[in-house]
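Q: Joint fold for the lines below.
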Amino acid sequence: MSRPHPIGAAVRDALTAQPTMSMFCTYQQDDLVARYGGDRMVRMPIAENAMLGMALGMALTGRRVLVSIARIAFLYSAFDQLVNQVTTWRYMSGGQFSVPLVVRGFSRGGEHLGAQHEHAPYGLLSRIPGLVVAVPGSPNSLAGLLRTALTHPDPVVVLESPLLFTPDWAELPEPEPSPAALPFGVAGLARAGADLTMVGIGNTVAACLRAADRLAGQGVDARVVDLRTAAPLDRDGVAAMVLPDRPVLLVDEEPRSGSVMTDLALHLVQTGAADPGRIDLLTGAPVPAPVSPTLLAPLLPDVDRIVDAALHSFAPDLRRKNP
Amino acid sequence: MSRPHPIGAAVRDALTAQPTMSMFCTYQQDDLVARYGGDRMVRMPIAENAMLGMALGMALTGRRVLVSIARIAFLYSAFDQLVNQVTTWRYMSGGQFSVPLVVRGFSRGGEHLGAQHEHAPYGLLSRIPGLVVAVPGSPNSLAGLLRTALTHPDPVVVLESPLLFTPDWAELPEPEPSPAALPFGVAGLARAGADLTMVGIGNTVAACLRAADRLAGQGVDARVVDLRTAAPLDRDGVAAMVLPDRPVLLVDEEPRSGSVMTDLALHLVQTGAADPGRIDLLTGAPVPAPVSPTLLAPLLPDVDRIVDAALHSFAPDLRRKNP
Amino acid sequence: MDLLSAYRAMLEIRLFEEGVLRLAGQGLVPGATHPYTGQEAVAVGVLAARRPDEWVVSFYRCHGHALAAGSPPEPLLREILGRDGGVCGGKSGSMHLADRANHLLGSTSIVAAQLPIAAGAAMSAKLDGAGRAVIVFCGDGALSAGGAYETLMIAAAQRLPLLVVCEDNGWQDRTASPLVRHLTPTELVRGLRLPHVEVDGNDVEAVHEAATGALAACRDGGGVGVLVAHTYLRHFHSQLGPRPPAEYRPAAERERWLARDPLTVAADRITADLTALRAEVAAGTDALIRRVVDAGGPAPATAATGITVTGDALIGAAR
Amino acid sequence: MDLLSAYRAMLEIRLFEEGVLRLAGQGLVPGATHPYTGQEAVAVGVLAARRPDEWVVSFYRCHGHALAAGSPPEPLLREILGRDGGVCGGKSGSMHLADRANHLLGSTSIVAAQLPIAAGAAMSAKLDGAGRAVIVFCGDGALSAGGAYETLMIAAAQRLPLLVVCEDNGWQDRTASPLVRHLTPTELVRGLRLPHVEVDGNDVEAVHEAATGALAACRDGGGVGVLVAHTYLRHFHSQLGPRPPAEYRPAAERERWLARDPLTVAADRITADLTALRAEVAAGTDALIRRVVDAGGPAPATAATGITVTGDALIGAAR
Ligand SMILES: Cc1ncc(C[n+]2csc(CCOP(=O)(O)OP(=O)(O)O)c2C)c(N)n1
Ligand SMILES: Cc1ncc(C[n+]2csc(CCOP(=O)(O)OP(=O)(O)O)c2C)c(N)n1
Ligand SMILES: [Mg+2]
Ligand SMILES: [Mg+2]
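A: Joint structure:
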């Protein structure tokens, strides 16, 4: 029997442990209704703005809410509540209130749904003060970050790649030993390695790990770091994990401009953790997602391109090691 | 008689030149209604989402719309239309449609309205592919960028600092010789100087210019660059304008994390335009805006802090020049 | 409207959509498809009453609207399959069809987002002063969205020449609509005091008659109108990937509705023999599908073009 | 409700607000202030019917709601002036007052955003099962926002114990509301089939009676209710900076309404002599203002604290 997806237990454990926790959804899950009652699994119309505002109102009055928004793309319909209400209430009230509220939804990956559905806007979301932006890169990381989110006293958005839910999810590279809770703002060492460091986030973690396997076949031993959360961004942790005097490749599906990776790269350079000449970024193109797979492919980094970037950008450095 | 604010002519000239241009507003301006008719100056209820969607529909059917959204803070209420509709329609349709649509509204500066009204999110907005984000730093720059926006075939958001509209607006440092149209994606040299380069955007342009005057009194001759637009970001233009081998100070009211300034700093370092050790950022704190002026002051860069950063961060470099 | 041509138009949509579902089952449709099967009488009846220079705005369930608006099937199917020569160059896929040449302004996959966009087009039409209306389609669930309400209220205040066609199929994905809203679409628009008409959405003649009247009122300055068409999805909400979703609707409800299929309703009124017509449409659809399945994808070099008119250099640095 | 205490409560609000306007004229109010003058009977009448453990949610015009909810005036004024000891530590200012101790959940300056938040609080109240209602205030213009509609519809579908108090002052800033909406608040909520009651908002007894009934229904499981109170602003929408805005409302309309000032309406029914009471409240307000004006600002070191509970280190790198 194949193991059950670790997300299920993460959600159920929280609902069981916290009887005052509710879930908002447009699609009600029968098993959860059966277990926890329709009162706690609140079925909503297509009204994301009110959904998020209501979740805030519940959170302010002492209940935790998990907003299952289906897709992060629909969070834009609730953006005032996110930017102006959810993430400001505690501060504006002078600390009188906490906002234990979690939004989860599909980001993008392998679905080909087009520009209005395919969003993984962790860069954009990380610009909202006070918001934790979790970007799991593996099934265990998803469960681990969601577990932490569901006990966190402040608002959290979890961007869940559909790739973590395909029928073959269990075949994905899994850097986390277990689905146990993972801290926010702490990058993880996803793979040890001695020749170059690759840093990924979300979908690019698996891509980097697969690229590392391919590179190993060519005698290159790549270290892989998983950022896990875009905000807080673990700048110092990454700086401590990159291999000194070795190349660093930052890999991101989001466009480069003003991204978490440009921020990180600057930090690595300014702290001396990486050499400006030996740091490179491989990022998505700043283009709305087209539906045709033929068009989407060239816009995102993939395993081939990562291997290529690692081998070519850093050829002299790698040669230095493998004469 | 004091000169009229250059924004008036910029709006009127466009309305006169383009009879198919309309303006959407919650506050109807009597003088414009008198001149152009209530039909073109459409008065709207408090419904920003529909307002922006309607502007898109008009733009797609061959009319230009200037959406006077009052405050950029209210744009979050229309965010789905901005991110998923306005900026995707041309691409998704395979280029069948253009979207000549301009949103203008107050950003922040000197108003003390608090966390829900005080937003200048050019970093966040610049992460939306296809959107021009104009951030004028002076009255002429405002008129110049708005003029360009009003003939531009693609969507533009103009973030207008309330500081550009105070009764003393004419006393502001004015780097632009005239209110003529300014190109997008082209940073401007706001002040010549030979000792260090300061780069500003929006409100920090005036702050940098005032700091430069103070520094001049101390024998330091600062060059000031105005980014003018956050997207497109004129990385190469700035790289060409910074003084080689001299310190660079990037000054931004927005928080540092993933900002246009971290992006720019990385570019300057990676292109060799600036030395990693001689580039510094002075940015706003990642905190929602508090109302009390006593609390707001420490969160934003100001002239004192800019002068201070210039003198202290770069003391050795400046001493080198002024022995 | 000639009933025989209406039948043909509905049959073309039906077979097109069944073809798309077959292709989806073979993994040939990238993304999701939302079949229009069962609702054909709405698109065909309404759009037969539209003038060709009147804009149509749709949502993710747009294949039927596009075909009924006169958009040629081949570029549509190429688009839906992500092949070369798609009406939107492969960028829209199934859910966002747009065809300027046939005055299909576009379609959105964000529920209700099409409504304000259509209202804006109607504002243009009003300013044009040429007596044109704009037609927008939406589901019944969409009327719960704040943007739908805002649009209806503005359209009423501004007397926009907008016809909102609400396809009331009783469900919003796997949720029965009455579970999440205390008013039916008709009760809602009546409550908002909007001119409206309710119609059997499976009767193409009834739909056409109602739309003709509603559009005439729009064009004559009567302002926004709402046409509520009661109908039902023959298949299901949507399919993402090669397998159709599990059935979610009560069997009795399905049987009741499927017995009133719009094609049957129309065919029952037609005295002519339909055998040859059916064979012809089927053969045409099969040939179309073969042609498109054999086509390649669009040129990858076009992927990063067309984000802005002014040149994609402006969109910021790529890698 | 005792009419004399109600009068006193209204007078306290009136003098507080007039004091704030005077201070604004002296440049002592950072940001904008939205005076509640003229609408005092609504807050006082409604909140006299509320139980102290029922949450109140407000919007930018919140001073009167806060005072009527029992929030002590000094920390409120300190907050409004951005001084030390403000109820929200100087972070909220005039438009976002919150006072947990007095069950004022908070206030928002984004029109209509308070409505779903209050509905969430009402969902909590419903799950608590202790028969508590939630009271939310909004303007008449706010009902045009999509979020208001979404909230009313969800509150109806979920039968939430929520009382929406719509302060219908006929204007939304400088725009007369009928210019941008074809329905009055009452027509709208009637059309949406929501239990509602319309009341003279300048008559504190009438308001109190209506609110008592509406709240009882909410608490008894009757679901959402709307109280539409017809009222008028004595001064103007808001003042930003030291100068009041130019008058924007027709003189005849103003005169008509100002003749029915809620304090006069109440005073006319009170037989007791009010001279001493008035002097006492005025003296108290003056003393309050002097104390607060003399206070310093909050400690700058608190500016970057309290964004998250978990420690502000988590919010990302500062400089
Ligand atoms: C804003 C938003 N929220 C949620 C969804 C997910 N979703 C897609 S279709 C749908 C149901 C819509 O039902 P209805 O409007 O009745 O149209 P139908 O599909 O029945 O034709 C939902 C919830 C979405 N696309 N957009
Ligand atoms: C979403 C949003 N849009 C616009 C504004 C600007 N604004 C502030 S108050 C106001 C008028 C609101 O009128 P109403 O709801 O009737 O309340 P009133 O001020 O009359 O009490 C407007 C348009 C805002 N604060 N929020
Ligand atoms: Mg439906
Ligand atoms: Mg009002």
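Q: Anything notable?
A: Residues A 26, 46, 48, 70, 74, 77; C 61, 109-111, 139-142, 167, 169, 171-173, 237 surround thiamine diphosphate (ligand 1) (CB under 6 Å). The longest strand of chain A covers residues 64-71.
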